[in-house]
Structure formats: structure tokens, C-alpha cells
Specification:
The complex is a heterodimer of chains A (107) and B (115). With 107 residues, chain A is mainly β. Chain A has no helices and eleven strands. Chain A is globular. The relative contact order of chain A is 0.35. The mean pLDDT of chain B is 97. In chain B, strands 2, 4, 5, 6, 9, 10 and 11 form a seven-stranded mixed beta sheet that branches. A four-stranded antiparallel beta sheet of chain B has the order 1-3-8-7, with no helix packed on it. By secondary structure, chain B is mainly β. The chains are: A mainly beta (107), B mainly beta (115). The interface between A and B is medium-sized, with 23 and 21 residues.
Chain lengths: 107, 115
Amino acid sequence: EIVMTQSPATLSVSPGERATLSCRASQSVSSNLAWYQQKPGQAPRLLIYGASTRATGIPARFSGSGSGTEFTLTISSLQSEDFAVYYCQQYNNWPRTFGPGTKVDIK
Amino acid sequence: QVQLQESGPGLVKPSETLSLTCTVSGGSISSYYWSWIRQPAGKGLEWIGRIYTSGSTNYNPSLKSRVTMSVDTSKNQFSLKLSSVTAADTAVYYCARGATTFDYWGQGTLVTVSS
């Protein structure tokens, strides 16, 4: 099973600032990496797939990069609605696995 | 707009079988993969398995011996059964569309395992 790790566990950011979240895979997942946003009491929402392609309706301030084992999600200018937990997920291998999440909270 | 809705008992006794159904509306269940994912309170996401509308399945090895998924295309539904549950199976259970990425999710249903 591919183990996904994320850092930091918590990221405190002021509105309007840039946030950079990291995700690492225990072995290469090529570009088969997705990012999700989850707010309290809600289901996760797909943000990014293919490591860098925004899902339908996702604002351009969200961008993804990386390949192999190292990935980054960048939120260019945090809006109030962006404070949430972010998960990465690999779909290169079975079983599909998620990272433990990064919580982005208000500084 | 595709919508998914989980249904089933919110309380299951230890050693019994958890049974959930996901009803898909706003689109056909056919020709898509469908997954179950769970999340214990305050914790991360665990993929349980997926089913195609042909009935083919793929389960997480950590749960494989206890999981059964099925699909009923006539009702636009798919289902999850998890046997021999323990307190460790207490979680919010989500149904979702996809087997690679998950683009539509149900709202989730809390299942508590307790006597």
C-alpha cells in the first residue's frame, strides 16, 4: 500500500496570503494525484486531479504541481471560504489511499 | 446535477453486519464506478472499495474479508455490507462516484458500532 504523508499538519494563514501545502508518496504515483477540500460537517470536494488539473468549477487561485513522490497544492490568495482541511489522494495503485490532511486555519 | 444519498441504520451492534445503500439521482448509475469511503471522527479518509455497474468489485485488502458491495441498476443504487463489525468501524460512511478520483459524494452517514 502506498502511504501518503502531508505537511504541515496545521497551517495558519492570514486572509489574502498564499498557502503552500505539501504531499509526499511512499513510492512514485506518477501524476495520479488528487487534492480534496473538506469543511466541517461536509463531504470532501475534489479540487485537483492529475496533480495539476483543476476540477470543474474550482477557482484559479488553487493550483497543483509535482509528480512522482512530491506534490504541492498552492492557494494563491486565501479567501474566508478556503479555511478547511485539505487531503491528497493517490490513484496510481490499489488500494486508493489518502494523506492525513493539512488543516488551514486563520492566523 | 448528480446527487448521492446514503441510507441505513445509524447504530449497529458489535459482531453484526453494517448495511448501507447509496441512491444516485440526477443521472444514471450505469457506466460509472462507484466507491465507499469512510472517516472516523476527527480522522482521515479510508477508501473501502469500488464497484462497477457490471458488478465487478475491488476492495481494500485491509477490509476485504469483511466487505461485500453490490449494485442494482434498476433502482440506481449500490450497497455496502461490512460484516463482524467492531467499535473500530464507527465512522461517517460516504458513497462517491469514481474509482480513481471521486467527483461526486454523498453527504455521509454516521454509523456507530455499540451494544
